[in-house]
Write a structure and sequence with these properties.
The complex is a heterodimer of chains A (424) and B (124). Chain A is mainly α and 424 residues long. Chain A has helices at 3-26, 29-50, 56-78, 83-95, 97-104, 106-117, 124-134, 140-147, 151-168, 177-201, 208-226, 231-245, 270-284, 291-304, 313-326, 330-344, 346-353, 364-376, 380-393, 397-423. The termini of chain A are far apart. By secondary structure, chain B is of the alpha+beta class. Chain B is 31% helix and 33% strand. The mean pLDDT of chain B is 88. The chains are: A mainly alpha (424), B alpha+beta (124). The interface between A and B is medium-sized, with 25 and 22 residues.
Chain lengths: 424, 124
Amino acid sequence: MTDTAWIDLALVSARPQAVGALLRYFRNLDTAEEAFQEACIRALKTWPKSGPPRDPAAWLIFVGRNSGIDKVRRQSRETALPPEEILSDLEDQESGLADRLDGSHYRDDILRLLFVCSNPALPATQQIALALRIVSGLSVKQIARAFLVSEAAMEQRITRAKSRVAAAGLAFETPDAADRADRLAAVATMVYLVFNEGYSAMNGPESVSADLCGEAIRLGRLLLQLFPAEPEIMGLTALMMIQHSRARARFDADGAVILLEDQDRGLWNRPLIDEALALIDRAMRHRQPGAYQIQAAIAALHARAERPEETDWAQIDLLYQALERLQPSPVITLNRAVAVSKRQGPEAALALIAPLAEKLSGYFYFHGLSGHLLKQLGKAREARVAFDHAIALATNAAECAYIRMQLDKLDEDVGTESGRAEKR
Amino acid sequence: MLYAVFCYNNENVTNTWSKEEDERVMRDMAAVERKYAEAGKLGPIARLMPTSSATTLRHSHAETIITDGPFAETKEQLLGFFVIDCVSLDEALEFARDLGTANPSSGSYEVRPLTIYKPSELAS
């Protein structure tokens, strides 16, 4: 690794705090971003000679702030009005600089920055793109690649998101406890969106989408440092860690999905699982169950089973029931049906999901699971109908390939059965 | 004299390491460890999970308080430690210097002599 690579790492890790503080000074996302860019350019010039500063974030905030003020001053000479009040605003902030740099504000700075990107008025795709651009500092090109869209389209998406954010206005006062909790919940949702975007688009452990999962976990760890006593943040981070721990086992050489029970568990990332289990242990101590914690606990039961047969399906069933009470949703019932099928057989599971048929008629996994259960019951014709529905609803190549494999297996089974019949 | 060598670094930076970077640093550290192990000077080594996995128990008078996270918020976190048998502080510092060379990110190593040492075999 070259010297500049280490500087890049320092810049990346200081970014959320620095951009968050600059956003507080300038109250404008673009100005804050440009000021940070300017500070990074200076860092790349001076750090190789002088060595990295003791506190890179404070250095970047200080330098970025000065260059931003210069710029606002220059613009104020070029434009007529109303820079007067903008500038006096900046002077006010300067006076409190010393105590602000000691880090007492940094928690709310980072939360605000993340919250800006989690605005519920933004569609999910815009939230994710904005967070990856502003908080994580990925280039438009990198984000476009992860989303499989053109750079121009991604640029436009981010610009739209920014103008929506600007129109919505930002709250700069220090949030009270209730506001902070609301913001944190919105931010958690956004972080999980980033993760899921990466998780669902992934077709191999080295794909660009895997980077999104890694980035979401990094944001989760950042939130944990800022809010060390929030059990739902522990749950969210643990959930993402366990799901991502299977990245190497989830796909075969052709990029087709391998189901949990067929995965080579030796390929799971054990250190990541251990860290997640430690987080779940800590979260449980708070006795404030939440949706992320329950999902993490379910994921943990899978992670703890060394072989699929050792999975504690009874406990998983109970946890899904708890999740249903907390967040009633047909999708959760559908997930519970898998646990029910393992404990009580496919018939009981089919009975559980039958009432969901209408609500989930457009949902890939509903038809996939129905087909699977029907196949187990030996109802090949009905299974085929369900798999045909599923394949029509598949949203990516991996899903298609998986269902096609199921259909092929049905054909084989029918073939061997009829073969047997002929022999008789 | 037995010394503990505590490794401090900004975990935001070490968490940003890619898997390859992490493996490379661990490999380079292992080379240093081998050198001291072959001389019979190396004791137990531990790498800690991130501070986000820490819980702190504080005990005062009759009261015990359990809180999330490490005891103090600092810019650099304790990430792991080594126990090493050295004839002098200079030799212990030499070991820390070797570690620093193997790990190219900036950080610090605190070298402290031990007064009690109870190595015990953990049932694995």
